């Protein structure tokens, strides 16, 4: 039986997962993983069962490693930006 991770450890993992999700070049992948991360941690931070939190923490640590590797591959083979990305960049530059 492992100990429950601290709130600081959970928030650190949350930040690392968000950074990994933001590193995707593809708009659809990036937005999917950002939303998935927010949803997963929203439920994880309100969970009261220490065993569930510990198992979920270990699972997310493993998924983070996969997410980082996937982001690297996505950066290597990224296509041109979608029109929605170029439009958002033009609004921000004004």
In short:
With 94 residues, this protein is mostly helical.
Number of strands: 0
Approximate shape:
elongated
Computed over alpha carbons, the radius of gyration is 16 Å
The number of distinct helices, counting runs of at least 4 residues, comes to: 4
Mean pLDDT: 89
Strand count, sense and barrel status of the largest sheet are: none
Number of domains: 1
- Based on secondary structure, the structural category is mainly alpha
**Contiguous runs where pLDDT drops below 50 for at least 5 residues:** none
Portion of residues within helices:
over 70%
Distance between the termini: 55 Å
SS strand fraction: under 5%
Order of helices and strands: HHHH
Protein name: Complex 1 LYR protein domain-containing protein
InterPro entries: Complex1_LYR_dom, Complex1_LYR_LYRM4, ISC_assembly_LYR
Pfam families: Complex1_LYR
GO biological process, one term: iron-sulfur cluster assembly
Description:
- This protein is mostly helical and 94 residues long.
- The chain is built from 4 helices and no strands.
- The termini are far apart.
For the structure shown, list the relevant keywords.
single chain; 94 residues; 0% strand
